[in-house]
Amino acid sequence: GDSVTQMEGPVTLSEEAFLTINCTYTATGYPSLFWYVQYPGEGLQLLLKATKADDKGSNKGFEATYRKETTSFHLEKGSVQVSDSAVYFCALSGSGGYQKVTFGTGTKLQVIP
Amino acid sequence: DVKVTQSSRYLVKRTGEKVFLECVQDMDHENMFWYRQDPGLGLRLIYFSYDVKMKEKGDIPEGYSVSREKKERFSLILESASTNQTSMYLCATQTGGYGYTFGSGTRLTVV
User: Fold this and answer.
1) How far apart are CA B49 and CA B42, in angstroms?
2) Is A95's pLDDT higher than 80?
3) Given a cut of 90, is residue B103 above it in pLDDT?
4) How many CB atoms lie within 10 A of CB B80?
5) Do the strands A62-65 and A86-93 form a parallel or antiparallel pair, or are they unpaired?
6) Residues 20 through 79 of chain A touching chain B, CB cutoff 8 Å
7) Which residues contact B7 (CB under 8 A, 6 or more apart)?
8) Residue of A48, A103, A107, A108 to mutate, testing the B interface (most B Cβ within 10 Å of its Cβ)
9) Nearest to A34 by CA among A58, A18, A10, A17
10) How do residues A41-59 score in pLDDT, each as one tens digit?
11) What percent of chain B has pLDDT over 70?
C-alpha cells in the first residue's frame, strides 16, 4: 500500500537558519503530494501541494519539488522564523476512487530566537 | 474558503459512555473523513464517507461507528468509550486537487 516516510524530529533551528525536512514516499501510479502544517492546539492546514512530477509547490516561503526519480518531496525554507514552529506532515493522495490521503508521522520544528 | 467545524475543542467522558463527535462543513463536498492523531503514530484513518448514508472503514474502525444523514454533517460515534480512545480527533473534507481541509480537532479524554 501507499506509505510516507519523513525525518524524525524534533528539529531545532535558530531564527534565519535554512530548513530542510526530508520526505520520501511509496505509491502506485501518480500520486499528488502535500505538506500540511499543524500549529499547537490546531488542526492541520494545507501548506503546499504538487500534483505531477517536477512540479514545485510553494507558499509562505516554503518550497517542495515533486521528484519522481527519487520518490521524494522535501520541504525547504531559506530563512525560518519563530512563528514557523509547528509540526509538519508530508502526505500523498493516491489514485483510488475516494482519493484517500496517507500521512507521514510528522516532524516537529522548533525555531529559537 | 471551505470551513470545517467540529462541535467541541475539548471533551472529557467516562469509560463506558456513548460519545458523539460532530463535524459540519459549509461546502458541498462529497468526501468526509475522521482521523485520530496520537504522538508517534501520526494520523490514522478511522472511517470515511463519500456520499450521504455511505460509509467505509478506514485503518482502525474498531470501537467506532459513523453516521452521515446529511451531506454537510459527518458524526463519529464511540459506542462505549474506553481509555485507549483518549486522543485528538480530526475531521476533514476533500477539496479540489485531492487535498483535505481539516477542522480544528477535538481533544477527547476518557477517564
Assistant:
1) 21
2) no
3) yes
4) 11
5) unpaired
6) 32, 34, 36, 42-46, 49, 51
7) B21, B22, B23, B24, B106
8) A103
9) A58
10) 888 999 999 988 999 999 9
11) 95
Q: Do A99 and B98 touch (CB under 8 A)?
A: yes
DSSP H or E stretch at residue A6: strand A3-6
DSSP state of A72: B
Tell me what pLDDT residue B98 has. Answer: 62
Q: What is the DSSP letter of A39?
A: -
In the chain, the amino acid numbered B95 is T
CA distances from B78 to A36, B59, B83, B98 (A): 27, 16, 11, 28
- The residue with greater pLDDT, B64 or B7, is B64
Beta strands in B50-84 (DSSP E): 56-57, 64-70, 73-78
Instruction: Count how many Cα atoms sit within 13 Å of the Cα of residue B71 in the half-sphere of its side chain.
Output: 7
User: Is A95 within 8 Å of chain B by CB?
Assistant: no
Nearest Cα to Cα of residue A37 among A92, A107, A100, A98: A107
Q: Which residue's C-alpha cell is 483535505? A: B100
Residue A39, C-beta contacts closer than 8 angstroms, at least 6 positions apart = A45, A86
- Predicted pLDDT of residue B97: 56
Per the prediction, chain B carries an average pLDDT of 92
